[in-house]
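The material for today's practical consists of a large collection of protein records. Backbone structure tokens are a discrete shorthand for how the chain folds in space. An example says more than a description, so a record of this kind follows:
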Amino acid sequence: MRDPRGWHSRGYLPHIDVDGLTQFVTWRTADSIPQAVLDSWRVELSKAKDDERWRELARRTEHYCDQGHGECPMRDPRAARGLQECLLHDHGTQYELHAWVVMPNHVHVLLCPREGVSLSTIMHRLKTASAHAVNRAVGRKGSLWQIEYFDRYVRSGDHFAGAKRYTEWNPVKAKLCTDPKKYPWSSASPDAQARLEFLMQQREMAIND
């Protein structure tokens, strides 16, 4: 079993990586926010305390992404479907997936890593596999994701419920639909949940054969 890394940083954002800790994770496409905008935010927030700075940076990032800037490759249903398949694939082996949404230029997931699996490993697998899936689906080439990701560990039942609601209602907030259940690339969608159940049944059948 690995040793939990606890709080750490690769020079961009702080992360906490501890066994069994439920995480609310967001990552975005590399072109969703211009570098000049990010640089201006960092200057504006340079005097804020660390917790306040990262929280405000996350808030601004999510608001900006919801406006649909950049290429937005997951606006194409083929790309969104391919990315969602990547999320569902490792449920039950690498992590427990509690909620998710695939937006045109970013992704939100609420998950709990399985024992001995680090969040950094999960994110590397997800970003690598999903980049290949999206590029293949729409015939694009090159890098897709911004290097870093935001993660916030879930502190309570209320925090969990709030993160799940935020995730599933993000398409409504971004004016992509009026009912979260009608957005197909989200855990709120009955069809997406049915797909997850089918994949779990297929895995169980393969194990029992």
Helices lie at 35-44, 50-66, 77-89, 119-138, 157-173, 190-208. The beta strands are 6-9, 14-17, 23-28, 95-102, 106-113, 150-153. The radius of gyration is 17 Å. The mean pLDDT is 90.
